[in-house]
Write a structure and sequence with these properties.
By secondary structure, the chain is mainly beta. It has a single domain, classed as Sandwich (Jelly Rolls). Helix content is about 5%, strand content about 45%. A five-stranded antiparallel sheet has the order 1-9-6-11-4, with no helix packed on it. A hairpin with a 2-residue loop joins β2 and β3. The chain is globular and about 50 Å long. The mean pLDDT is about 95. The structure holds thymidine-5'-diphosphate. The site of thymidine-5'-diphosphate has 7 residues, from β4 and β5.
Length: about 130
């Protein structure tokens, strides 16, 4: 599956909204969950690609932008809805910027943390594509 926004099913009533992801809604099995918070608005995160990890990135609160580079073209996504996730497959260089105050960036990952599957050098990334 290529880079795409996935709509997360939600249940809405007068008491508010509940969004839910079940295993069949995801293109991979989740092995790890992490989240970014207290991110200064003038900073950026990411700046890497993964050999193995697939991700689903969700703006649980606030907003931020993700620039995805598949080696051929770049796409910019604004995430600001808790019931939307951006699916990012392997070998996509991503940068995350323009965090709003109070933004929480949740990442569902297909792998456990393993620094050796990170590609943190853009030239190495380009050479692999
Ligand atoms: P880093 O990869 O720089 O974060 P970003 O996603 O913004 O590029 O990770 C920051 C630090 O956190 C780095 O020392 C690695 C560590 N880390 C873990 O220990 N476990 C994890 O699951 C993740 C994602 C990062």
């Amino acid at each position: 599956m290529s880079i795409k926004i996935i709509e997360i099913p939600k249940v809405h009533d007068v008491r508010g909204s509940l969004a839910v992801l079940e295993k069949d809604d995801l293109p991979f099995e989740v092995k790890r969950v992490y989240y970014l918070y207290d991110v200064p608005t003038d900073t950026y995160r990411g700046g890497h690609a993964h050999k193995d990890q697939e991700s689903l990135v969700i703006a649980l609160s606030g907003s931020f932008e993700i620039i995805c580079d598949d080696g051929k073209s770049k796409q910019r996504f604004m995430l600001n809805k808790p019931n939307q996730g951006l699916y990012i497959p392997t070998l996509v260089w991503r940068e995350i910027e323009n965090f709003s105050s109070g933004a929480v960036c949740l990442v569902l990952a297909s792998t456990e943390y393993d620094e050796s599957e990170y590609i943190r050098d853009y030239q190495v990334f380009k050479s692999l594509k």
